[in-house]
Amino acid sequence: MKVGLFIPCFMNELYPNSSMATLKLLKKFNMDVEYPMDQTCCGQPMANSGCSKDMKTLALRFVEIFKKYDYIVAPTGSCVTMVKDHYEAFFDEDDKDYNKVKTSIYEVCEFLHDIIKVEKIDSYFPHKVGVHNSCHGHRGLKLGSASELNIPKNNKLKNLLNLVEGIEIVELNREDECCGFGGTFAITEEDISVAMGKDRIKDHIDSNVEIMTGADMSCLMHMQGLINRENKPLKVMHITEILAGKVQL
Amino acid sequence: MSILHNHPAKAKEFVANDERMHWHDQALWFVREKRDRISKTIPEWETLRKYADQIKSHTMANLDKYLLEFEKNANAKGIKVHFAKDAQEHNEIVHRILSENNVKKVVKSKSMLTEECHLNPYLESKGMEVVDTDLGERIVQLRNEPPSHIVLPAIHLKKQDVSDTFHKEMGTEKGNYDPTYLTRAAREDLRQKFLDADAGITGVNFAIANTGGVVVCTNEGNADMGASLPKLHIACMGIEKVIPRLQDLSVFTRLLARSATGQAITSYTSHFHGPVEGGQMHIVIVDNKRTPFLQSESYKKALNCIRCGACMNTCPIYRRSGGHSYDYVIPGPIGSTLGTFRDPKKHKTLSFACTLCGSCTNVCPVKIDLDSQLYTHRQDLREMNIISNQKRLSMQFASWLMSKPALFDFAGKIARKVVPNLPKFMIYNRFNVWGKQRDLPDMPKKSFKELYKEEFGNDK
Ligand code: SF4
């Protein structure tokens, strides 16, 4: 089983450690992982700004690069949603390559939970952790049941974190409120974006969380920026860093 | 600022008052939580939503048939049905009926449609007095403001604001903020208006094709007062309000109040199937730019909306920017898609006033695909060349750069080298919107790709 690792462009540049944790995590479960060197960006920032036409080449490149893998795994719910939901416009309905990519791409937690079905994770993390359910993963990929829906409660991120020794997962007041990142929304609607992020941070602090985690580094980056600016007593970590245990390079 | 509407600017104003913004957010979140709780007491909730979606979509696909059926059955009940193509014609028809009956004073209840058609100023310009009788709507009417929410029109106001308004307009005691006192005063004032009125205008929640009657849902009972006390009742509705059968109504009444306010049912679900004794009942059915939706694959489901307001209550942006920031008769997610479709140029910022979190789509009782409609609007605005040149060019540049991996890697490498050594003022300045209130992430020494190469070689 060959797994193609997709690291979103900004994580490659800004979060090499979280990216490396993802790789190690997959290796920890004996996956045959490969990182295709030619990858760049899935095109989400462009598409979310209305410019999906302009990123057609990126969609075509993405499928070309990743079509040969049995699975494609990425540490980000929102880029996976992009490929799954919004690439359709660029391909014929029966395009074999795209349909393969679309059905074999997974967010890393989803992959561990649904495909490998991990039951044991050798990891220790004695901290109070708050899970930020980022919207694209949470509602888009259904990594957890959204609080609005009347369906059985489940949360793949929490199920995985519960396998970590010593961890205490804290309930938040608003379990799946948006953090206000929203890609270019963070810029075009700066004031609302910042207000939302601050509220999300406050919920974590009010709930005595030490570490905020999640499956989307972009949301975490937004909140980390706010935390650092105001020196708030809260740390941010991508979920793969917790699941991978101590990551040694 | 031009007449073009600008959500970010209006949102900025609302956010600036931190205390009020959070109060607004909390008030609406309270309603959403109530909705969550009560919707979970119904095991078949998600199935009900599916039925509602199917009934609505079926009706819209056969709208002509059901409207004619409705007209025929309504006529048989002694109701006069009028069709209007737009707001102007709607107002003219209403005015004609009123003046034919020598009406001077009108009481009105529950109608976003008349708000959309600007009926009040029209009738007032013809010398008539129009009084909105829903408490919230009365408050905003006295303040000369549009409603900021379709179910809770005065949710942007605190009781102090209401007290001040009532003091100024109705002479209530200054500084008396007691809600009971204020409600009583409003009720007394309204009671007289009801007694004096020559006609009552109401909205319509559902028009039932196979019975020819209309249903209005209220919590204050004022639609009943307005429709029963005067001898003349005019009900105004958009073409989309029709449902096929009486049986279908139960699906919607079970969903509507629970979605709107978290109540099991509205206090009054009133059926009007004919004029009061010796009186007249008219129904004005308006198109006003609705038919284009029927032809649009991407946006037609927006017409299925039953105006419960749940998408507003759950929307994290609406909660923090207030209804007036949308500058459209219907605010929130549904207003953003309706407004943008009707006038993309004027409302071009609305589909971007959204993080695409998807919560609205999940709460919507008729399962309108709100967040994907807003995503699609953005693509359409780009196609129509309505988004800013700056945005378009920077996205074109980004796409170009991203299709050249070597160049992109090189750019990243340079940035990681240069940025950490730049003086602060070069990074945090007015061109860097991100950095105004947020720190930038620390620049790592190496990218993941570089680390990967070092450790595993170039093994692709
Ligand atoms: S779009 Fe859906 S949730 Fe929003 S007001 Fe209409 S019916 Fe209610």
How does this model look, in words?
The complex is a heterodimer of chains A (249) and B (460). Chain A has 2 domains: 2-115, no CATH class; 128-244. In chain A, helix 12 links the parallel strand 7 and strand 8. Chain A has 13 helices and 8 strands. Chain A is of the alpha/beta class and 249 residues long. In chain A, the strands form 2 sheets. Chain A has a 4-stranded parallel sheet with strand order 2-1-3-4, sandwiched between helices. Chain A has a 4-stranded parallel sheet with strand order 6-5-7-8. In chain A, helix 11 (190-206) packs across helix 12. Chain A is 46% helix and 12% strand. The two termini of chain A are 24 Å apart. Chain A has helices at 9-14, 16-28, 44-48, 56-66, 77-86, 96-104, 108-115, 135-140, 156-161, 185-188, 190-206, 217-230, 239-243; strands spanning 2-5, 32-34, 71-74, 105-107, 128-131, 168-170, 211-214, 235-238. Chain B is an alpha/beta fold. Chain B has 3 domains: 1-41 and 298-387, Orthogonal Bundle (Fumarate Reductase Iron-sulfur Protein, Chain B, domain 2), CATH 1.10.1060; 53-288, Rossmann fold (3-Layer(aba) Sandwich); 389-457, no CATH class. Helix content of chain B is 52%, strand content 11%. Chain B contains 23 helices and 10 strands. In chain B, the strands form 2 sheets. Chain B has a 6-stranded parallel sheet, with helices on both faces. In chain B, strands 8-5-6-9 form a 4-stranded mixed sheet. In chain B, helix 9 (159-170) packs across helix 10 (179-196) and helix 16 (332-342) packs parallel to helix 18. The radius of gyration of chain B is 26 Å and the shape is globular. The mean pLDDT of chain B is 92. Chains A and B meet through helix 1, helix 2, helix 3, helix 4 and helix 8 of A and helix 1, helix 2, helix 15, helix 17 and helix 18 of B. The structure holds iron/sulfur cluster (SF4). Residues 259, 305-311, 334, 363-366, 368 of chain B line the site of iron/sulfur cluster. Chain A: InterPro entries: Cys_rich_dom. Chain A: One of its GO terms (molecular function) is oxidoreductase activity. Chain A: Residues 3-84, 129-224 form the Cysteine-rich domain.
